[in-house]
Amino acid sequence: MPDDSSLGIALFPPLAETRSQLEKLAELLQWKDAPQLRHWQEALQHAEDRLQQAKVRIAVLGAVKSGKSTLLNAVLGADRLRRGAGILTSIVTRIQLGKISRAHLRFKSKSLLDRQFQAALAFLQSSDSSLPSCKLDQASERQSLLHWLDEQPAEEDTSHFSEERAFLRACLVGYSEAIGYLNNSTQVRTWSGEESCHHQAWVEQDSRAVFLEDLLLEEPGWTWQGTEIADCQGIDSPNPLHLVQVQEYASRSNLLIYVISSRIGIRQADIHLLRNLYQLGLADQIIFVINLDLNEHEEQADVDRITEHILRDLRRCGWQQPHYFMFSALHLLLQRKLELTTREQKQLEFWQDHPVSQMSANAWKTFQEELHMRLAHQQSQTLLAGEWRHCQRLHRQVSEFVERLQITLSAETLDWEEWQSELQHRQRYLNYHEQNLRYTLKGGEQQWKQHIDYGVRALFERQGGKVWSSLDRFLRQLELTQPKDNFSPNIQSMLWVQEAREKLLRWVVDEINVSLLPEIARLCSEITMLINQAVEPFFEVLDELQHREYKLQSKLQNDLVSSSENPKVYWQFPEIEPISFTTTMAFQTPEQLRSWLLYGQSWFRTLWRKERNPQMDFHQQSQRELERQLRENLDFDVLNYRENLKYRYLWSGTEQLLETILVCWQEAARGCQADLGSLLEQLEKLRSERKQLIPLLAQWQNNWGKLVVRLSPE
């Protein structure tokens, strides 16, 4: 990938260079403990800590075998990503910049794993009461259940439980290996350097992947600081929760890369997800990559034909003029890998004179440039805007501080009284406005939280709210499949629970999330805008002081010092992972399942009596009973989600944002003040060396000024 310098664009404030220049200034002044310099170093560290949390996200999407992992491996220049374990799990593999290769695997907590395990066990127990109970931490019980699963082939009427069987088997087989990584809370295992490739075994095998919750890779080859790129698998999975992960990550992303195989084209899974993304309002954020299979396309005409077919399908999904690139990810990967197998070397040589290879290389270069430009724009306009301006303000303060030193050292005599009076006035002025800022934030916090409360209640109102209106429509339309002849009531009842749960989750994905996720983003945007409007005047106070300082310097040196344009403050909502509405709707606790199993067993007496048309009665009454239970569960789940969304996400994010703004204002205010006593004392020591020092300060100021260009986020 191109580095920052290759395109002349800075994607991040030059914090390291700024810190280095401040250290050099301290050496020049022989004053490493200068309060003012120490403050600026601390402010830089705080900014860096905040920027570590700021991420521009890129989601790489596409169906299985489309080439997502190959594309990312081409970016990294090595085979770092492996395809996930399939039906049981579909984690989003995230990649960030790191000094060395690291793999961070987050394992599920014991409590979460136990809930999932017991829920799957309850489903299977509905089909066969001989299925033994099992606690995962009991080795003998694990062995007994595994033996039972091996001895009991799936019957036709229990074939719907294949996923539960596979999940249980994976847990039983892999538990002894995973137990060292499981705890009462989520635990992260990190492999570094050459050992970082160990993560691949965990994502490739079901018996290991089933214990994972998240995977983060750090790679030195990923050169865009502050950027996270993710391999999103699961759009082909029959499990709707896998699609949810893709949907929710994509909705939080700033840019989406959708990979389409030229050999396979657009499939039904692609159409489903693309229409979903279009409804989420993400159409303008998508770049399509048609991944060329050079073994399939020998002529440009063949590529043109396949491309036109894919573009026609994209137009049917809503993209009248899709923005796309065509290149071979595998060809690029082989070109970038440091070590090639004999087969890979022969493949690369075979493609060397391929008619399409040059077109692929040109498209890859253009793709890189556009991706880099989009990232620069996203970082400057969204996540980094407030921090950029904070760094700009700090840079100006340091510049003025050095200019003041130069003026002082150059003057034969200097009247300090006016300067001291100005600093005293400045201190009183800033103290006054800090109190006002605190009052504004405290009073505004209540108003902004009320705004959030109103917005959340409007979404979840029982009458007229978007969420419940959609759920009511789902319950009215829910139709359970008719039972087969000679059905088993308890098995059929559990099948219906599974059917209803899957239909509910798909409804949430396709109908509710497409309106709920944009509404949550809108609420965050509104709150951020209101807060920015409230605090902007207080940052303008700091800029006003800059103007006063320039006037004072002009008077002292009888020369006009031009001031730079005052940057406006702009802060973004903090990086907090949103609460997932879909996983709240999982409807799979063991207690719920066992209560429904008892309901099914109660129908055995009716069947034994051979009452009239028991099959129809069972179906109709079960339909009503399941709808009643669903509504009852949804009442609790929706309320639970609503409160978590309000308190743990929106309110918590607002509080964090206000705290960040106050800290940044205080840092900027302190940077406007100087400890005049210690400053004068040090300057007296330096006056005898001013002939040597003044040129060195001028050279330092020149180097410092070069950072101004890189401090412009535009």
Question: What would you say this structure looks like, in words?
Answer:
- One of its GO terms (molecular function) is GTP binding.
- It comes from SAR324 cluster bacterium.
- Keywords: GTP-binding, Hydrolase, Membrane, Nucleotide-binding.
- The protein has 714 residues and is of the alpha/beta class.
- It is built from 24 helices and 9 strands.
- Mean pLDDT is 81; it is low at 1-10 and 556-567.
- It folds into 3 domains: 10-50 and 385-710, no CATH class; 57-95 and 223-382, 3-Layer(aba) Sandwich (Rossmann fold); 118-175.
- It has a 9-stranded mixed beta sheet, with helices on both faces.
Q: How would you summarize the topology of this molecule?
A:
Layout: H1 15-28, H2 35-53, E1 56-61, H3 68-76, E2 92-97, E3 102-107, H4 110-125, H5 139-151, H6 162-178, E4 187-192, H7 199-204, H8 206-209, E5 212-219, E6 227-232, H9 240-252, E7 255-261, H10 268-279, E8 286-291, H11 300-316, E9 324-327, H12 329-336, H13 342-351, H14 357-383, H15 385-410, H16 416-460, H17 466-477, H18 489-557, H19 581-584, H20 590-601, H21 604-609, H22 614-671, H23 676-686, H24 690-710
Parallel strand pairs: 1-6, 1-7, 2-5, 7-8, 8-9
Antiparallel strand pairs: 2-6, 3-4, 3-5
Helix pairs in contact: 1-2, 1-24, 2-15, 2-22, 3-12, 4-6, 4-20, 5-6, 9-18, 14-15, 15-18, 15-24, 16-18, 16-22, 17-18, 18-20, 18-22
InterPro entries: Dynamin_N, Mitofusin_fam, P-loop_NTPase
Organism: SAR324 cluster bacterium
GO molecular function, one term: GTPase activity
